[in-house]
Amino acid sequence: METKPTRAVVTWILVLATSSCHFFTRADACDNVPSMDIDAACLKACTSQPLYQLCQDTLRHAEPAGEVTTYAVIAARFAKLSYEPTMETVDLLLQKASGDERAAYANCKDKYQTAHRIMAAVVDQLFAYSFGSARQ
């Protein structure tokens, strides 16, 4: 199941988004957005080698250097696209599980749905303000 990598994506998207523009309240709120290459962005956003690799893999289609908001848009899109297949897998696991295993999957599903709601709000704001041109 992909919950840990997907949760990691949500975490570093939020780090990138909030470090580049504190609150997305107006379309011009993100003037002077920092630009950096993908390696620097991933190093800044990630706290471990697996998260760094996930960041690199997620941004593989981005321009080699760009505004961090562009990277946030790409990562947000990646997280949004991975939600439905992950939930389908969890639902299949729930159908086959029983007892403590079923309770664990149900808890995971609840937490994942909460993370998805937060991620959806971030995605909506990022796309509403058209930060960069995400190519993924």
Q: Mind sketching the topology for me?
A:
Blueprint: H1 3-20, E1 35-37, H2 38-45, H3 49-58, E2 65-67, H4 68-96, H5 99-128
Antiparallel strand pairs: 1-2
Helix pairs in contact: 1-4, 1-5, 2-3, 4-5
Describe the structure concisely.
The protein has 136 residues and is mainly α.
Explain the overall architecture.
By secondary structure, the protein is mainly alpha-helical. Helix content is 70%, strand content 4%. The chain contains five helices and two strands, in the order H-E-H-H-E-H-H. It has helices at residues 3-20, 38-45, 49-58, 68-96, 99-128, and strands at residues 35-37, 65-67. A two-stranded antiparallel ribbon has the order 1-2. Helix 1 packs antiparallel against helix 4 (68-96) and helix 2 packs across helix 3. It is elongated. It starts with a helix and ends in an 8-residue tail after the last helix. Mean pLDDT is 75; it is low at 18-29 and 131-136.
Averaged pLDDT, please? 75
- Unreliable stretches, pLDDT < 50, 5 or more residues? 18-29, 131-136
Helix count? 5
**Strand line-up in the sheet with most strands:** 1-2
Q: What share of the residues lie within helices?
A: 55-70%
Helix/strand class: mainly alpha
Q: Could you state the order of secondary-structure elements as H and E?
A: HEHHEHH
**Whole-number radius of gyration?**
16 Å
Biggest sheet details = 2 strands, antiparallel
Q: Specify the overall morphology.
A: elongated
What is the number of beta strands? 2
Cα separation of the termini: 23 Å
Strand content: under 5%
